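testing teh design pipeline on a random one, pls ignore if ur not involved
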């Protein structure tokens, strides 16, 4: 593997997501390398679309410019699958990962469709619309990560998708005000109508109490997806299961804190402390080990039917 590509990817994850970087260290070396390179591609695409750097400085952009950037990302992704030499380090990393793990082409292209929903300022009328967005920007990332960890069974992939959905529902709840400030509203319009808050006024402080109700609803909605995701741990290598269990606990705690803060959830960005991360790291080891002893169990009902 090209050391420059790996180094670039490692830098991207260390600067872009400390939580993911910490969880990735629990993987075996080969899995960690692939996970980091896949992350670098996802981070790069997100940054290109939003005109930001490693997840920071997000701003509302011109739709036509966004569409042009997206078209370029789609073309580069297609070229990576055609085996063309990639000069961009993020795409070189991506190409190495999809070739190494035989990641189906439809997954990254579906991920880019999630960015298209942002570029086109899609209106989310119902919960199904919001869940489709969550699937595209996070559920398919879970599917690709599961392939990196060696999972191929459809039931295990369903669990990985569920975890991605849970993560994104938590992200939406945490970032409601920040996203609304740049014109992005992922809450279903039907929910906003229930609390009589116009989408155009979502970021205004006077609506914080109503917003807290909807954020709590998102957090509660994520819970069965978090529970379902744990059912897939037994099908992963132990170190991978440990990493996923740790990330699972960290993100779930963020949602719990958003709900607990109520109308003050957006006074400062919700995150987990170093002490909490250490506790989740230790707890994740126990959860991963316990999953070995609970391998024979009924599968949970499908919560949201992902495209096949």
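output:
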């Amino acid at each position: 593997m090209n050391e420059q590509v790996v180094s670039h990817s490692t830098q991207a994850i260390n600067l872009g997501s400390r939580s993911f970087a910490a969880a990735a260290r629990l993987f075996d070396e080969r899995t960690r390398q692939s996970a980091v390179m896949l992350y670098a591609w996802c981070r790069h695409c997100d940054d290109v679309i939003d005109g930001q750097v490693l997840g920071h400085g997000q701003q509302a952009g011109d739709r036509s410019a966004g569409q042009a950037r997206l078209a370029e990302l789609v073309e580069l992704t297609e070229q990576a699958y055609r085996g063309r030499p990639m000069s961009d380090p993020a795409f070189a990393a991506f190409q190495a990962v999809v070739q190494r793990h035989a990641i189906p082409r439809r997954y990254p292209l579906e991920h880019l469709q999630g960015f298209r929903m942002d570029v086109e300022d899609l209106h989310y009328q119902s919960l199904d619309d919001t869940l489709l967005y969550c699937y595209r920007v996070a559920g398919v990332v879970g599917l690709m990560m599961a392939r990196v960890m060696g999972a191929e069974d459809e039931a295990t992939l369903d669990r990985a998708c569920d975890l991605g959905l849970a993560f994104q529902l938590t992200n939406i709840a945490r970032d409601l005000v920040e996203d609304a400030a740049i014109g992005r509203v992922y809450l279903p319009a039907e929910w906003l109508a229930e609390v009589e808050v116009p989408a155009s006024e979502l970021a205004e402080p006077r609506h914080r109490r109503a917003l807290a109700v909807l954020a709590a609803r998102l957090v509660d909605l994520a819970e069965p997806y978090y529970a379902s995701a744990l059912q897939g741990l037994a099908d992963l290598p132990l170190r991978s299961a440990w990493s996923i269990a740790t990330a699972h606990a960290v993100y779930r705690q963020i949602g719990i804190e958003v709900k607990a803060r109520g109308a003050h959830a957006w006074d400062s960005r919700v995150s987990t402390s170093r002490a909490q991360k250490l506790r989740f790291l230790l707890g994740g080891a126990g959860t991963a080990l316990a999953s070995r002893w609970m391998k024979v169990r009924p599968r949970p009902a499908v919560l949201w039917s992902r495209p096949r």
